Amino acid sequence: MKLYTYFRSSAAYRVRIALNLKGLSYDAVPVHLLKDGGQHLQDEYRKINPSGLVPSFQDDRITLTQSMAIIEYLEEIHPEPPLLPKDAPGRGRVRELAQIIGCDIHPVNNLRVLNYLVKHMGFSDQAKTEWYRHWIIEGFQSLEAHLARDPGAGPFCHGDHPTIADCYLVPQVFNAQRFNIDVSAYPNIDRINSLCIELPAFRAAHPSHQPDTE
After folding, report:
1. pTM for the whole thing?
2. Pairing of strands 56-58, 63-64
3. Are 61 and 110 in contact, with CB atoms under 8 Å apart?
4. What is the mean predicted confidence (pLDDT) over 74-103?
5. Which residues contact 158 (CB under 8 A, 6 or more apart)?
6. Using one digit for the tens of pLDDT, what is the confidence trace for 142-182?
7. Domain assignment present for 214
8. Are strands 63-64 and 27-30 parallel, antiparallel or unpaired?
């Protein structure tokens, strides 16, 4: 297994967590998003991922280039330990929580969006930071409300074991903290994150522990 990754990419961070939770070894291939004009935009990498994004995942059967597709593929070919509940409502809920992060928060704060705001829309660094913080705060308010109201919430986002939702939550909290957002304002998010980051699989996936960490 090979994972094309960037240490600070939250999408790659999700996949690293999932691989670690399942105890799967893989080769990490760093793709720097800033050096050389963005290594992810070069022709050699676009042959692997035409979208020019990270992560990309390869094994002897397939190349996948979306974090949710990669994680669900791993779930199917390596079902233990499970990252989705056995019941359909539970699986739906976990996917919902993950997609609040993966669809509502992350895309508008992706590096290519931020670069466009600065280079083509004339945003200052301060305005870019305000944009970033706004969408995390709005998304966290929604996510916190979902976690607070749902009886399926346990020590983790759903139940007593980490799921795909937790793989998504922890990288987004990391991003929020980089931009000085007080996560304690969201007690369920803060609690779940604090529990997860103490687990070896999450610690090993942290950006500070990657081969390309700066």
Report:
1. 0.95
2. antiparallel
3. no
4. 97
5. 85, 90, 93, 94, 97, 152, 165
6. 999 999 998 778 899 999 999 999 999 999 999 999 999 99
7. no
8. unpaired
Task: Count the alpha carbons within 13 Å of 34 in the hemisphere toward its beta carbon.
Answer: 9
Number of structural domains in the chain? 2
- For residue 7, give the 3-state DSSP assignment: coil
CATH of the domain at 70: 3.40.30.10
Residue 157 and residue 119 share a domain: yes
Backbone angles phi, psi at 152, to 5 degrees: -75, -15
Task: Report the 10 Å Cβ neighbour count for 106.
Answer: 23
Evaluated on CA atoms 206, 208, 211, 212, the torsion sign reads positive
Q: Encoding tokens for residue 181?
A: 């957002």
Domain containing 31 equals 2-81
Residue 172 token pair: 């987004």
